[in-house]
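chain below, 311 aa
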Amino acid sequence: MDIGISAIEHVLGSEAVSVDELAARGLLDSPPSVLREFGFVCARISREPSHVLAIAAARKLLETSRIDPASVDAIFYAGATSESHAIETSNPVSDFSYPVSQLQYELELERATVLGLAQVGCLGMIASVALARDFLFSHESANRALCVSTDVLPPACKRELIYNVISDGACAVLVEKGIPRNRMLAYRRITKGYYWDSVERKNEIASAYFPTARTIIRDTLADANLAPSDISHILPHNVSMRSWEILLGLLQISCEKLFAQNISRIGHVIAADNWINLKDAMDGGALRAGDKLLMFTFGFGGNWASMVLEH
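prediction:
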């Protein structure tokens, strides 16, 4: 049974703010010159809350793909921050107002069962897509699942996390039966709970990051019966170029295969990076049928994930 990714759309924060301006606002820990060396130019900041961006991204996908809302069987909704999983209302018990239910209602996805996915940091979307695929495999009558990730940092929150510049944004991905394009060949995820306090143990995470990333990527490639040389393109999470240069060196994969344009253009959009990069690579004509695509991401909480797709 072919299950593939048929459509991707995203919405970013409307304000593009340079690293120099971020520093002037007190939102960085490192000098702008250091972050520019790591490949960052700006961050996208939203004045709208995360659930508004999520609805906008999902609506954009439904409209551009001409998808009947009634044909969506499930929604997987991911966010890395606590603010992504509750809508502020006049009710003092507002934490129980869930944005995934609001999205289902606003977009008239009346048949869709819903699930909110949290506590895996930047792995939210890659985990949602894997769950959507498993859902479609296990439910014979289901044909379409919508995955949505969204995060907006609070106004005074730092825009730098361990030498990475964070942007606000939302992304929507449609996973469907009968779609041979962008089908998943292999997927792995690992959690090392020792690193649950990611800020306190950031130096230890930096030490564990590369060997764990190398191992999980190699294991994912082996699951797909592929060698590193078989990969046509790497669709990254948009962390620093320097970290990618190190990791690709460990994997013995050419940096020319890395789709890196968006690191400087939009920064790190938490869980959305890999999927925005996939869409932009498709729209730019960089991919050919049969290309093997590697995704990798790391999330706070001590989470690593890797996925291989066939375009």
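The chain has a mean pLDDT of 95. The first helix runs from residue 19 to 24.
thats it, cya
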